[in-house]
Design brief:
Alpha-Beta Plaits, 11 helices, 7-stranded mixed sheet, disordered C terminus, single chain, binds flavin-adenine dinucleotide, FAD/NAD(P)-binding domain
């Protein structure tokens, strides 16, 4: 085990966050900064390094939450600004908007940032908090709870039966351990999955010179092309071909992709020919929505992908994890500070309906299926609100106005 904590087998904290991604780290940081003692428990020996990982789009409302914690400059330096969205259909532009045109927006741009850069920025702040401890290389193997708190039994990762167990007592535990959450399984929360029948192919290439940095969509039903500027400067390109073209992509790689894009985005198609050999390999993506049957079992709370999975369209997975972290840490703080355990219910009642509504929108989106009917709406039109502002229930909760629900 590597650890920042000089680890006795037993430690006590207000909050134990299980997971090593950005959602886990942000929840731990916010809890520590609102006065709780916090232990973050990550199964891996190391955290993702700055610059590593994919570069998801952080939307302005999420950038605002991060900036409020002083996590701003290094993200802006390492990230790529995205100014807005242009959605094209077969007959021309369907929808075009810029972040800067939305009054009161937290930032006039989104930012694509490597997940490792965000993880390191959060980790540095967390380690600087006197009330926070970070333990790595350790996983939860058993959970017990009562009305007062949770007892987590841990073991070195991969050695569930071999190493001397550690014990962490916490008033609340947070399962931020991803899609296949072990902690969620230990508390018996089930997950329902809905699989999209349509895959897409992802390629990262050098940026096309002279293009405005916007999220650009060409939807010539049923084919759909999404490109987004990423650091480098580069672009991440997600292509949903027609059914009959899928095999050719699997066999032909980036060259086959360039061929298929000729009639959809000729400039990009020609550019891929020029930068041949300087792109990533072509990667097939499958898409699944998943939802946990509850976001809480007693004093164990689910956060991020342990609670929900979203499609990449609308760029919301990480944004929603981070926004949930703000809601969760506020609910934990209020439950502990007031001594009223019912206040923890605000987290699930504020966040779950919002995220499930986004999932419903994605499930019914034409751009994600094989329909050949010409697109009448831009693929992102239903997502403009969520890409530009926090939802009102979260704003009210963070301002101190959310009603508790459940106990
Ligand atoms: C191609 C692609 C593009 C995307 N684009 C966007 C985008 O533009 N915008 C956006 O917002 N999102 C995007 N996403 C989604 C986003 O990356 C994820 O939703 C987000 O990273 C999930 O964060 P998380 O903290 O919930 O989970 P994760 O990042 O999966 O973190 C889970 C953590 O738990 C740890 N863990 C695993 N098992 C255990 C265990 N047993 N015990 C303890 N810890 C454990 C893991 O090591 C990991 O650190 C994209 C995803 C993909 C694949």
């Amino acid at each position: 085990m590597t650890t920042d904590d000089p680890a006795g087998p037993d430690i006590e904290a207000d909050v134990c966050v299980v997971g090593g991604g950005a959602g886990a780290l942000f929840a731990a940081l916010l809890s520590a900064r609102s006065g709780q003692s916090v232990v973050l428990l990550s199964p891996k020996a190391e955290f993702e390094q700055a610059g590593a990982g994919i570069s998801p789009l952080l939307a302005p409302p999420t950038l605002g939450l991060l900036a409020a914690e002083g996590i701003d400059d290094e993200l802006t330096r390492a990230g790529q600004r995205v100014l807005g969205v242009d959605d094209h259909g077969s007959a021309g532009l369907l929808s075009s908007w810029r972040y800067a045109d939305h009054p009161g927006i937290a930032r006039p741009h989104g930012l694509t940032v490597p997940t490792g850069t965000l993880v390191q920025a959060l980790l540095t702040r967390l380690r600087a908090e006197p009330g926070a401890r970070v333990r790595t290389g350790e996983s939860v193997v058993a959970v017990e709870q009562d009305d007062e708190g949770v007892l987590l039994t841990t073991a070195r990762s991969g050695e569930a039966d071999g190493s001397a167990p550690g014990r962490i007592r916490a008033r609340y535990a947070v399962a931020a351990d991803g899609r296949h959450s072990g902690l969620r399984e230990l508390v018996g929360i089930t997950v329902e999955e809905s699989v999209f029948d349509r895959p897409a192919w992802l390629l990262v290439a050098p940026a096309v010179p002279g293009r405005e940095p916007v999220l650009l969509v060409h939807h010539q039903a049923p084919r759909a092309l999404f490109t987004i500027p990423t650091p480098g400067p580069s672009i991440a390109l997600v292509w949903s071909p027609d059914r009959g073209e899928e095999q050719a992509l699997e066999e032909g790689g980036p060259a086959a992709l360039a061929g298929q894009l000729k009639s959809v985005d000729p400039e990009l198609s020609a550019w891929l020919g020029e930068v041949d050999g300087r792109t990533s390999p072509l990667m097939r993506l499958g898409f699944t929505l998943w939802r946990a049957s509850a976001w809480r079992a007693g004093r164990v709370l689910l956060l991020g992908e342990s609670a929900h999975g979203l499609h990449t369209l609308g760029g919301q997975g990480l944004n929603q994890s981070l926004q949930s972290a703000a809601s969760l840490s506020r609910a934990v703080h209020e439950a502990l500070a007031s001594g009223d355990a019912a206040r923890i219910g605000a987290y699930e009642s504020v966040r779950r309906p919002h995220v499930e509504r986004l999932q419903d929108l994605q499930w019914n989106l034409q751009a994600l299926g094989y329909s050949t009917a010409p697109a009448e709406r831009g693929a992102h039109e239903d997502f403009i609100d969520v890409m530009t502002r926090l939802h009102p229930e979260l704003v009210a909760q963070l301002a101190g106005g959310a009603a508790p629900s459940g106990s």
